[in-house]
Specification:
The chain folds into two domains: 93 residues, RNA polymerase sigma factor, region 2, helix turn helix motif (Rna Polymerase Sigma Factor, Chain: A); 63 residues, Orthogonal Bundle (Arc Repressor Mutant, subunit A), CATH 1.10.10. The protein has nine helices and no strands. It is globular, with a radius of gyration of 18 Å. It is mainly α. It starts with a helix and ends with a helix. Helix 1 crosses helix 2, helix 2 crosses helix 4 and helix 3 crosses helix 4.
């Protein structure tokens, strides 16, 4: 099995099988990030598909192979945030209908009530805090990795994480 850097090189050369392997290698992680940002709405799969289309189209322009992963997750983050902006704009222009009340709230069963409370509290955080905190909690990302994804300084990342954790503590004690 070729390494990720070999897959990237092959995919950049036009190898479709390498491109498919690359997508499969990152599919679950990108989906988890998208869901953490936009929530588990019915459109997360479409957002993920858009992300991988952007990856395929932009892969040849990527100058350094070692920045592939932060580059891909920056695409994912930006695409998810763009989706949230479009969703907010649609709410402004689509009138509320009675049928909207009938939409079921699909929540995943969780065996541990503490995890459910944590998930509920994280869902209440603003999107920028939620995605950053999820990256740290789920993926144990370093500050340098987070700066590569977000394009922000380490100080800004630390400040945002501090505020997110502080707000999360407030939300958890209120539950």
């Amino acid at each position: 099995m070729p390494s990720i850097s070999e897959l990237i090189t092959l995919a950049r050369g036009g190898d479709e099988q390498a491109m498919q392997r690359l997508i499969v290698a990152y599919q679950a992680r990108v989906a988890a990030m998208v869901i953490s940002v936009i929530g588990d709405d019915e459109e997360w799969e479409d957002v993920c598909q858009q992300i991988f289309v952007k990856m395929v189209l932009g892969l040849r322009r990527l100058k350094k192979l070692e920045v592939f992963e932060p580059w891909l997750f920056r695409i994912a983050r930006n695409s998810a945030l763009d989706h949230l902006r479009r969703r907010r704009a649609r709410r402004l222009f689509v009138p509320w209908q009675r049928s909207h009340e009938a939409i079921a709230d699909e929540t995943r069963p969780d065996l541990n009530p503490h995890h459910a409370a944590l998930d509920e509290a994280i869902a209440q955080l603003p999107a920028d805090q939620r995605d950053l905190l999820t990256l740290v909690l789920d993926r144990h990302c370093s500050y340098s990795y987070l700066t590569a994804i977000t394009g922000e300084s380490v100080a800004a990342i630390k400040s945002r994480l501090f505020r997110a954790r502080q707000r999360l503590r407030q939300l958890m004690t209120a539950l």
